[in-house]
């Protein structure tokens, strides 16, 4: 079967899914910034003692269970505390000093909750591991199709300037073909890199196990005894070895996990919204059980796994990187629209010729 035919029909079959992926990706590229801008109040800098004190007081409130805390913006000046009360899941937005800014239920689409739903759709179609695998496979097909398109569009020697320039003329078919080819040649390479990172991200858990590159977690050797230490104590113990680090995530102990899981963004770490330096603190005596310093070398496989998320989201390049990801999403939707228009126009002209 000719390459052009394969490229055309794979695109037609999967275009809707790829456009959906691109659209949801565009909507969440700046999700943190948009949500943060909609919450009035302080953006006080992160202070571990005061934020820890807020957690200490919240876990002591009746009928309240705190599960985790996550940074709500790139500057670590606001945090979301996830908790449940009276069997209702809620999120408390606080500033870097723990002062409350917004308290909302999680079962609505108001405020920032809509972005959580969009993220679930973009990453797994809200289908969990099966959805991630399905989207990973569709990403592989998209990469293959981009490669086929590049092969078809590749200019002959001496034709590059013309191929990369704005298409001229008024006839619909050559104009559509020219725009489709030109945009493909300009953006295909960065799009290929971004989509490749997304495919790897869909299978990252399996890759960690396959190459034995998991971030180390503590081994439960015997049940710990005694009362649990306060969250503020665990937070201070995790931050102590990393001067200047800010908090990215903080998970409280569970029945099968008798430790605090603290995720930090250490100075010198790869740029990303949430840092990857991870510290496990014993929930009963405050010892550091294990730690993963994201600034140190942990082998080539682990380096790739640590890079794929900030690369796919553009966070590795800061604001400029995220703008590029937004443009790639718009490019993918435009390429799908141009490709379908090109197919439809060609089909209509063919039918018109056959009828005459």
UniProtKB/TrEMBL annotation:
PROSITE patterns: PROKAR_LIPOPROTEIN. Keywords: Membrane, Transmembrane, Transmembrane helix. The keyword Membrane applies. The keyword Transmembrane applies. It comes from the Bacteria. The chain crosses the membrane at residues 12-32, 133-154, 183-203, 323-344. PANTHER family: IRON-REGULATED INNER MEMBRANE PROTEIN-RELATED. This is Uncharacterized iron-regulated membrane protein. It comes from Asticcacaulis taihuensis.
């Amino acid at each position: 079967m000719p390459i052009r035919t394969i490229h055309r029909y794979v695109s037609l079959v999967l275009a809707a899914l790829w456009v959906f992926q691109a659209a949801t990706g565009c909507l969440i590229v700046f999700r943190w910034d948009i949500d943060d801008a909609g919450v009035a109040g302080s953006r006080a800098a992160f202070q571990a003692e005061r934020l820890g004190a807020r957690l200490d007081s919240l876990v002591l409130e009746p009928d309240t269970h705190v599960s985790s805390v996550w940074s709500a913006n790139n500057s670590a000046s606001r945090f979301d505390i996830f908790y449940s009360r009276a069997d209702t899941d809620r999120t408390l937005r606080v500033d870097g000093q723990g002062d409350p800014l917004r308290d909302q239920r999680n079962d609505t689409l108001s405020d920032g909750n809509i972005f959580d739903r969009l993220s679930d759709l973009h990453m797994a179609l809200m289908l969990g591991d099966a959805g991630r695998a399905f989207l990973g496979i569709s990403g592989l097909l998209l990469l293959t199709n981009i490669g086929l398109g590049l092969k078809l569009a590749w200019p002959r020697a001496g034709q590059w300037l013309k191929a990369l320039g704005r298409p001229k003329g008024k006839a619909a078919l050559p104009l559509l073909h020219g725009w489709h080819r030109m945009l493909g040649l300009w953006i295909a390479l960065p799009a290929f890199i971004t989509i490749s990172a997304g495919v790897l991200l869909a299978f990252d858990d399996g890759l960690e196990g396959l190459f034995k590159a998991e971030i180390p977690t503590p081994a439960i050797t015997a049940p710990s005894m005694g009362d649990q230490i306060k969250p503020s104590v665990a937070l201070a113990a995790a931050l102590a070895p990393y001067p200047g680090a800010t908090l990215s995530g903080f998970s409280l102990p569970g029945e099968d996990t008798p430790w605090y899981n603290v995720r930090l963004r250490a100075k010198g770490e790869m740029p990303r919204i949430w840092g990857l330096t991870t510290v496990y603190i014993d929930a009963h005596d405050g010892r550091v059980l294990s730690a993963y310093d994201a600034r140190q070398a942990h082998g080539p496989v682990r380096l790739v796994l640590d890079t794929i998320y900030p690369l796919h989201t553009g966070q590795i390049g800061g604001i400029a990187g995220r703008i590029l990801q937004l443009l790639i999403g718009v490019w993918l939707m435009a390429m799908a629209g141009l490709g379908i228009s090109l197919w439809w126009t060609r089909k209509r002209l063919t039918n018109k010729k056959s009828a005459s």
